[in-house]
Design brief:
single chain, Aldehyde Dehydrogenase, Chain A, domain 2, seven-stranded mixed β-sheet, 15 helices
Length: 454
Amino acid sequence: MNMLHDPTTGDAFAGPAAHDAPAVREALRRATRAQAGWGRVPMAERAAVLRAMARELRRDADAHASLMAREMGKPVRQGRAEIEKCAATCDFYADHGASFLADRHVAHEAHEAFVTHRPLGTILAVMPWNFPFWQVIRAAAPALMAGNAMLLKHASNVPHAALAIDAAWREAGLPVGLFQALLIDGTAARRLIRSPLVQGVTLTGSTAAGRAVGKTAGERLKPCVLELGGSDPYLILADADLDVAVEACVTSRLLNGGQSCIAAKRFIVVEPIREAFESRFVARMAAARQGDPRDADTDVGPMARHDLREELHDQVERSIAKGARLLLGGTIPDGPGAFYPPTVLTDVRRGMPAWREELFGPVAAIIPVRDERAAIRAANASVFGLGAAVFTRDVERGRRIARDELHAGACAVNDFVRSDPRLPFGGIRESGFGRELAGEGIRAFVNIKSVVIA
């Protein structure tokens, strides 16, 4: 029996049994058979299933939030918000999927020419633990709406979340076989990628995981979408509204305990306002309420696992050893659970772990710079390129920097970056490639087919 551990208390509890090789093979055959029929189902019928899924998610939001708190430590208030975002995304694709995939007629000397979008088949989704419902639904809703089937390999510490999503799709009326959660390890996932019955792969996870999955998919010439790590820079310029900047920066840094690829991680502050920003930022970080994620008043729960906490603390200590100054936190507390306090480092420079590595937890790195140009250079001096933000009272200045200067897949002006079903989401460089959400997301796993009729 697979044993799991509550990250708040450290208590062990039983996890479900893993799927063996024969069960995986049967699941793949089941998906292949089911997808052959689903690909011919009218879009309106697919949309009805997605709307039913939205209702199922909302109905059980409290139970799902409690499950996330137990398996990976997410505060229940944030868990309920995650479920609502999942439901809204199902509704979004139910409303817009048909128009995103509508045939596009092209002026041509032939009698008729058009571009159509046909499903690829079965897609494998390899998903992480940090947003255990959202990461899955944002991949599954467009893929299923497009007529594909999906197999899910979820993170090993959130198996009950995986099975809850599987059950919700069945309750919503999705035909058997079209979505199946498989409790398997990385070796079994690689075998699935190599299978000729799997037509594409989507992964959200670390850069290392993305390299491994991308390599295996590339060897089989299969399309993949990789949403990987990030070390998102937030630029605070001399004319920034500090009340707005501090609130957005702290919210982004502490959301989900700081365990988010798209969270703010590097805070690049121009010298004239550095002292004012630091004092307000530290006070706001210190005011965050850390505790049991089952408490509705909790802002920051535990980290998902003890090994992740140890890794984060090591990054903090190595940064301090290289000259960073600790303004808040930075110590592992006594007691049970994988708690790590909101932590602020300043005087972070190139070469420090807090600059070059992803800090996947509630640790903020303040980088002082001389002026706007130096801020932009510091922001782009990273192997990552997922999100970025700029804070300035001059909206046109912010627009120019966000549009033309920052190297990232998503940028915000005077706000924090977040995923939204209306906008494509993904990164560049070592933050991955391909896009989820919006029209780009639903077209990620379709055959864009040209048809010419003489």
